Amino acid sequence: MNVYIKSILTFNNEGEKRHVDLTDGLNVITGESKSGKSALLEIIDYCLGSSKSTIPKGEVTKFGHLFALILKFPKYHLVVARNRLDDDGKKQMYLYRTSQDIVPKELSMDLFTEENKLNLEQAKIELGREFGITVTSSTENIDAIKNEPRPSVRNMTSYMFQHQNLVASKFALFYRFEDSQKRDQTIKQFPVFAGWVDQQYYNYRLELDELIKQQKRNEKLQQSYSKSTEKIKRDLLNTFKRYYMLVGKTLDDNLSLTKLLSLRKSLPDFTRESYLSEEMEHRHGELKKQREELKQQRYDIEMSIRNLELSHGYGKNYSSNLKSLKAILNHSLHHNDSYDCPVCGQGVKVLTKKIVSLKHSKKWLVEELASVKVQGNEFHLQIHNLSMEKDKLNDEIRRLGNEISKIEEITDRWKKTKKLDNEVVYARAEIDIECKKIEEQQANLRKNDNESDVRIIELNRLIDGYNLNSYYSQAETFFKTNISRVIEKVDFEEEFRPADMNFLLDTFDLYHHDKESKSRVYLSEMGSGANWLACHVSLFLSFLHFFALQEKSALPSILFLDQPSQVYFPEKIFVNAKEKSNDVQKVEQIYKTILEEIELIKETTQFKPQVIVTDHVGELDIEGYKFEDYLRKNWRGNDNKFI
């Protein structure tokens, strides 16, 4: 997105201010240590809604009562400001939008009124909207314990900031990634910041997830229904049989569920002539006979279980006795196969024979113990299987008992009233109710499946229309090409040239593909601070380039590098170009690479992204560029500092 920081400001209680004015393109702030350079990045971070203030304690925090940024958009300015954390800054921010030009040196604290004050969370939402974030929720899982947090300007900062302790780190690439939750959010929200997706995309994903899970639930219902079809059919068959019994007709036991449902519409009518009283009695007797047979089967199973339990008890006692014998044998058994007299040294045949016999007995004992253990396991399995059969018989006996009770109730009522017509009407109504219930279940399952299938196909089509896979593929190709191109310009070890850098968008890992060993060399596996710096600079210049190219990107085209030259001059507080060492030339090459990348981006996008560099370099001789054209502040000498 075409936006840059026009000025970084801080006000004290009296309204006195300090400010650093910036432009698009490259902005360099240089100076001695403790001049306030590194505070600038922390002020920007604080004004972009950080939950805590990391502005260095000292002169800046003593002076600073309110911190502010002026953001320049193509058609308007946005002022973002925040009081010190301990002075209402923890909960409040100021946002002021105007189409008029804002001159930093003319800006006063009069602007920061109650009218422009928002609570911190709302201010971050509004700031995100200014940058073009339209997504309010990136949740894709309907069963998520809590919704995914909305994409925020806070996650954008991971692409924008390279702190002093990060810019050449071998272990970390991104700001805020030490928090795994924030890391995962930033990676997941990459398509949002790139402008590839909108809220509707996540709505589709959420609905699709819900439908797929509903479909799986329906499949389980279908399976459950299919498994219970036999029971449903049997219960319905019994209902039909009661009716047929009342009207004096017989019913085929082998009718399918479908046939039974269709039979409902053509039930035989009741007539006095067709009724046979013996039918009810016959049905009642048949059911009682079936129940008695099942009770006998249950009794046989119960006796088998009891016998097995008794046998298992005997086996346990037998095993215990065998173990005792084994312990005695182990204690008393001679270790040799023969026994010699301790006095004369001659072999004693009788004792030798007993030793051999005892050893054979021990072998048998060990084998018998193993056999008893196996048989014990078999007892458990047989008892379990018989218990399962007994449970099934109990269910069937219970069902037959219910059928018998219903017939007896009908018989009792008929004997009292002598009105069989009412019983027939009731039995017919019972058939209607059960058939309708089954038909509705079947219809609902079919309807849900059909409707879900159609909508799932439609949602997949709508989601595919966002072409995310294609975007990701193109993006990874871009990063591979661009990072490799940029890193060749800076101080990158010859061992890794020609560079084949790859950035994985699903994990945010950066690695060099070694063609010789056909292996990946990750950042942490590369030696030398120069290599680490080269990786950071090339990756984040590529991010700057990539997001600038995305037509609907919500990410500001801003990159802040804090003291990149520290790799070459860790102890120096001032580096002068006159000390024309090889290291100075390498630093100059970094700045030249930054400027060339800015120009390349402008050629394609028609605007310059902003790169802010705080460093301790002095005058540099950058081929094709004048260093002083990009120098915004040079804080050296007495009283020459930010505060």
Any key phrases for this structure?
643 residues; alpha/beta; Rossmann fold; Helix Hairpins; 2 domains; five-stranded parallel sheet; 16 helices; 53% helix
Notes on the protein architecture:
Pfam families: AAA_23, DUF3732. It comes from Brevibacillus fortis. This protein has 643 residues and is an alpha/beta fold. The chain folds into two domains: 4-197 and 467-635, Rossmann fold (3-Layer(aba) Sandwich); 278-406, Helix Hairpins. The chain is 53% helix and 12% strand. It is built from 16 helices and 14 strands. A hairpin with a 4-residue loop joins strand 4 (66-72) and strand 5. Helix 8 (199-227) packs antiparallel against helix 13. The radius of gyration is 43 Å and the shape is elongated.
Please indicate the percent range of residues in DSSP E strands (runs of 2 or more): 5-15%
Terminal CA distance reads 32 Å
Global morphology: elongated
Question: For the record, what CATH class of the largest domain applies?
Answer: Alpha Beta
CATH structural architecture of the largest domain? 3-Layer(aba) Sandwich
Protein name: Nuclease SbcCD subunit C
Keywords: Coiled coil
Subunit structure: Heterodimer of SbcC and SbcD.
InterPro entries: DUF3732, P-loop_NTPase, Rad50/SbcC_AAA
